[in-house]
Design brief:
Layout: H1 2-10, H2 15-21, E1 29-34, H3 42-51, E2 55-59, E3 62-68, H4 69-84, H5 88-95, H6 99-119, H7 123-142, H8 155-182
Antiparallel strand pairs: 1-3, 2-3
Helix pairs in contact: 2-4, 3-6, 4-6, 4-7, 6-7
């Protein structure tokens, strides 16, 4: 499993592409309410947005955020990239909290932004916010602490394991089939 997690991380690095899209939405001002959950307090959520240079104020258990969508995207992608590359010290010094928690705060913010865009009937903007969460924030969070590897670097063991899994799956399937045949259970067309 560790090998396949490393290979998955090595093949899911889309953060630079997300960072490039930030320029396409620069100048677009957004205001939304980010909703914290049981893992993040409103103060922690506000700290991430404030430390990144955006207006954020806590009220009624939510964080009202105002800023430029392009700048939000660029900073979120840069922080996701730092976590993806295991540069958690930079995130800890900038925000005063664990790198995974920082990226999780960005995730909550962009999920709230996506919801706000949908409520306003702004479909393309909602798709953009979802792309940031799916292509940058989620992979960075999910693969934190796992080293990346390319299939070309681990070709021999990868081919062996995949071949073994196919062989083992077929062997197991035939064993179950023969077990059912021995019990008199068969899958045949009734007459």
């Amino acid at each position: 499993d560790d090998l396949f997690n490393m290979l998955s991380k090595g093949s899911s690095y889309y953060i630079p592409a997300v960072a490039e899209t930030a320029d396409s939405v620069r100048g677009q001002e957004v205001s939304f309410k980010a909703k914290p959950d049981e893992f993040v307090t409103p103060d922690e959520l506000a700290r991430v947005f404030t430390a990144a240079g955006f207006e954020a104020e806590t009220a009624d258990g939510k964080v009202k955020v105002h800023g430029d969508l392009g700048a939000l995207t660029a900073v979120a992608a840069a922080d996701a990239d730092a976590l993806y590359k295991e540069d958690t010290a930079a995130l800890a010094s900038k925000y005063g909290m664990d790198g995974r928690k920082v990226v999780y705060c960005w995730y909550l913010g962009f999920k709230s932004l996506e919801k706000a865009f949908l409520e306003e009937g702004k479909g393309p903007e909602a798709v953009f916010a979802k792309k940031v969460t799916l292509k940058a924030l989620e992979p960075a969070y999910n693969f934190a602490g796992i080293p990346a590897a390319k299939i070309s670097e681990r070709l021999g063991i990868s081919v062996f394991l995949l071949t073994f899994y196919v062989f083992y799956t077929m062997w197991y399937g035939f064993a179950v089939m023969f077990l059912f045949e021995g019990l008199g259970i068969s899958a045949s067309k009734g007459h």
